[in-house]
């Protein structure tokens, strides 16, 4: 029937160009695993960029890139929305228009402000380390409030904001902070965020996307050193 044909077409061939250390790649893998979508993963040995990556994403020249039935999609937010609309099981984005718009708002806030303040401000710390930590905690207070009394940002089940935040906070920034020997989101000050992190780690498909801890810490420290010199 038509539904079976559509499902067969959607299965198609799915390829993901990514990098093990990229939170943007990790979040796409989270979505693919959550929805049970078979895919071929192609690791990019960044900072070297393969001819295939340059061919598929000539504008940004970055991972991730998703290829589905010869359709090419760059940029993690776009890829997550495409995956959600193409495979209807285990929805990632809310159906309600307002809730969907707010999910996009928080995802943008995380990538544009949380990532910036959690990495750049702490690495460079132009005004001093304590001032940078305070600036970061002011941003995290918004997320603490947003996830209060909820299992996940998406409610009872993991969703769009959880994948964006989950790929950035516990599995990227926290590894940087660990290497720097600082705790930006202590449990006594951010109990809800820490509870959310525990909930996230309880999901098998999320754990499968977590980079090796020591390897990630080493990588983040190297990135921070390069950033200081830039």
TrEMBL record:
Keywords annotated in UniProt: Cytoplasm, Detoxification, Transferase
Stretches assigned to the GST N-terminal domain: 12-91
One family name in Pfam for this protein: GST_N_3
EC number: 2.5.1.18
Ranges of residues in domain GST C-terminal: 96-223
SUPFAM superfamilies linked: GST C-terminal domain-like, Thioredoxin-like
Domain of life: Eukaryota
Subcellular location field: Cytoplasm, Cytosol
Residue ranges of coiled coil: none
Reaction it catalyzes: RX + glutathione = an S-substituted glutathione + a halide anion + H(+)
Family label: Belongs to the GST superfamily. Tau family.
The name this protein goes by in its record: glutathione transferase
């Amino acid at each position: 029937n038509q539904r079976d044909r559509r499902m067969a077409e959607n299965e198609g061939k799915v390829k993901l160009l990514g990098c093990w250390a990229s939170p943007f790649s990790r979040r796409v893998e989270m979505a693919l695993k959550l929805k049970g979508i078979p895919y071929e993963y192609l690791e990019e040995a960044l900072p070297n960029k393969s001819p295939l990556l340059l061919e598929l994403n000539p504008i940004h020249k970055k991972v991730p890139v998703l290829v589905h039935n010869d359709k090419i999609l760059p940029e993690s937010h776009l890829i997550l929305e495409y995956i959600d609309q193409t495979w209807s099981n285990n929805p990632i984005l809310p159906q309600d228009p307002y809730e969907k718009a707010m999910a996009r708002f928080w995802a943008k806030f995380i990538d544009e402000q949380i990532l910036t303040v959690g990495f750049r401000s702490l690495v460079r710390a132009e005004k001093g380390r304590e001032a940078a930590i305070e600036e970061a905690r002011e941003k995290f207070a918004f997320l603490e409030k947003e996830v209060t009394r909820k299992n996940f940002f998406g409610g009872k089940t993991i969703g769009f904001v959880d994948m964006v935040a989950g790929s950035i906070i516990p599995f990227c920034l926290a590894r940087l902070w660990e290497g720097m020997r600082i705790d930006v989101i202590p449990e006594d000050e951010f109990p809800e965020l820490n509870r959310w992190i525990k909930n996230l780690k309880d999901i098998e498909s999320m754990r499968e996307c977590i980079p090796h801890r020591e390897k990630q810490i080493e990588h983040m420290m190297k990135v921070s050193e390069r950033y200081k010199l830039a």
